[in-house]
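Hi V.,

You were right to ask for the full record rather than a summary. Here it is.
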Amino acid sequence: MDLDRPEWLTMHGGYRVPYDPRDALLALESGKNAKAAWDELWSELFHQGDVGEASYAAVPHLVRIYASRERADWNTYAFVAIIEGARLNPGNPRLPAKMRDQYEAAVQSLSRQGVRELEAAVDPTLVASILAVIAIAKGQPTLGRLAVEFAEDERQEMIRFWEGQHR
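Predicted structure:
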């Protein structure tokens, strides 16, 4: 959805109240106050597992902005993976049909970029976030959630627990 559309003013974020993320998106695009913009987006568009239409509408813009950057950053990958995981929760609003094509295309585009960036990635958060988006794009949302929502030590604990149950 274009940034000049008035619908942005009525969409809800993670707190289930109207939230307009355009200023934060424009700050990311300009490269000014990127940390503050990410802090705001993380806080307003995802809250304790809750998302809203503004969360979905922001995804294609985040992917577009990210594609113009020259260095890998975990924020976009993790954010898209978290929003997609929350989208599948029946307690959250459905992805509006008018947003579906752009949203799904953005997830696929970010996955392709992740495949290209994965070889050089060394930061564990970046690697896990890229893998989460790739898994989601390949129809494996649970695997994506495990990659992005749990740290390596937590995933190891799950494996130990599973192994203990199957001995």
